[in-house]
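request received
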Amino acid sequence: MGEWGILMAEDYGIKISADTVDVKDAITEATVKDFTILSTVANPKVSTQAVLTADSNIAHGLGFVPMWDAYILENTATEAHPCNGYGNTTWHVSSDATYLYCDEISGTNKLFYIIYLDQP
Amino acid sequence: MGNYGVKIAKETYSYDEGDNRLIYNSKYPLLKMKTHGTGTLTLSGGVGSKTVYTHSLGYAPFFYVWISYIDTATGNEVAKKRMCSWNEYLGLQRSDVYIASSNTTTLELSVDTSATYDIIGGSGTATLDYVYVVFYDPI
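response:
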């Protein structure tokens, strides 16, 4: 069992290791994944998220093409399907530096979206 | 294992009302961004592929790719970006496909819009813009 814990790095910042991982293990390309958080590595931060019931162009205000994800919610929101042309559907969401375009909503489904603050 | 670590509760909730009520819990990993970037993919005959990114992680990492696409009615590029992988069904078992995948050394991007050009004609020459993010976290 490694020495799990939270450590202020000798140089700067915070490193928290995963369970069973020694927090004092060296950070390498291959071991970054073994830490739950490293203050030297960025984590996605949610800018906004919501459930839509009608087609909308969401003005995200970021000024760049953002990271985002979206799902169609069906059967009274008990099923979530990625908006990627699943099967023979035409569910697609798209974005540019101004909007997230959500125009796949019908009377029987909803759409969940999440937009991240971090610039890809 | 001792019961220690960091928990940050949402406003109006206590730290001990369940992990799903926490802003942060050091027990659970956060996605860690390794790199990001933009690029272009050239289509010839409606088809193109490329290695977007080469890494040395030794495992297939979690990733996102968003890419501009071909209007199936006109054959022209639409600047708005959709998230890979996805397809545009054209009927008669034909689809345009936009596929991104990661493996132990690379992030790959492959596009086949030949269905559109087979239907509407044209050279199928286009340059698509993409945006990507690769995480340290494995799939």
